[in-house]
Design a protein that fits this description.
With 289 residues, this protein is an alpha+beta fold. The chain has one domain (7-285): 2,3-Dihydroxybiphenyl 1,2-Dioxygenase, domain 1 (Roll). Helix content is 18%, strand content 38%. The strands form 2 sheets. The chain has an 8-stranded mixed beta sheet with strand order 2-3-4-1-5-8-7-6. The protein is globular and about 45 Å long.
Length: 289
């Protein structure tokens, strides 16, 4: 699996669009589940793939208050993080040792994992992890034509519901940075059924809101040409917090890295981006802005 992360990626995501997550800051119509209780297009799970799960458990427990339960996935140790009794994410080591930094892998709900995987190669993508059943879902992992990695999932039970208000300490937004925004929009529109519209244009860059069944699920924008050699296309996950600045300072004291400290000119100082001690990067966002 190609684990993608660059500090510049997160800085660009924050600096280019002062209000790029405002599509999630208004409460859109609740995404209707299909007859089986699933919500295709909804990002429903996050896994941190890291060479040091123990260090990351300590980091995220201290930073975000996550609690952990040990289990296994496909015979490998796997830790499930939860907060206030609700699952948040998983932490797992890569199958083989790697020099790559840690990375967050996001899973999107789909109607049929196998059918989508069958179409990926014809559209220029790759299947990194073939469909397999685990205890809670059927899952697969793909790499899109621009090199970004994404998980697919069909839950055994219902998908998590859409909530009127996102929960503190939980993931609530996703952004995609593209080498070729039109190509990425075409790929994910065809593969996952996303519809897109331009939410904002700044410095000549368009920010696209990705929707499915009337619900905004993510944002997407083009990596500027000046930064393109230093930035890999990637999905960047966002966690809802009350005090991004305080948590950024705390992250550094816990052995993490502050990629972007809150700045008044970027979403009114409501955003920080940090990396854990093994390099896994995520955004810490206060909401409403």
């Amino acid at each position: 699996m190609k684990l993608l992360w660059r500090a510049a990626l997160a800085v660009l995501a924050a600096a280019l669009f002062a209000a790029c997550s405002s599509t999630s800051a208004t409460t859109p119509p609740a995404g209707a589940a299909d007859a089986s209780g699933h919500r295709p297009g909804k990002f429903i799970w996050q896994d941190l793939v890291t060479p040091d799960p123990a260090a990351c458990r300590r980091f995220y427990q201290a930073l975000l208050g996550w609690e952990f339960r040990d289990t296994t996935r496909l015979g490998h140790p796997y830790a499930v993080a939860s907060l206030d009794g609700r699952p948040v994410a998983g932490i797992v080591a890569p199958p083989q040792p790697t020099d790559e930094p840690a990375a967050w892998l996001s899973y999107v709900s789909v109607a049929n994992v196998d059918q989508i995987v069958e179409r990926v190669s014809a559209k220029g993508g790759k299947t990194l992890f073939a469909p397999v059943d685990i205890d809670v879902a059927r899952v697969a992992v793909l790499e899109d034509p621009q090199g970004a990695v994404l998980g697919l999932a069909r839950m055994v039970g219902d998908d998590p519901p859409d909530r009127a208000q996102p929960a503190r300490g939980h993931f609530f937004w996703m952004e995609y940075l593209a080498d070729d925004a039109p190509a990425a929009l075409a790929f994910y529109s065809d593969l996952l059924g996303f519809e897109s519209s331009v939410h904002e244009t700044k410095n000549g860059i368009e920010y696209h809101a990705l929707r499915r069944d009337g619900r905004t699920r993510a944002g997407l924008f083009q990596i500027p040409e000046a930064a393109d050699k230093n930035v890999d296309p990637n999905w960047l996950p966002y966690v809802l917090v009350d005090d991004p600045g305080g948590l950024a300072t705390q992250a550094e004291s816990l052995g993490g890295t502050v990629i972007l400290a809150p700045e008044p000119g970027i979403r009114s100082g409501t955003l920080a981006i940090v990396a854990d001690p093994t390099g896994g990067a995520l955004a810490l966002q206060k909401w409403p802005l």
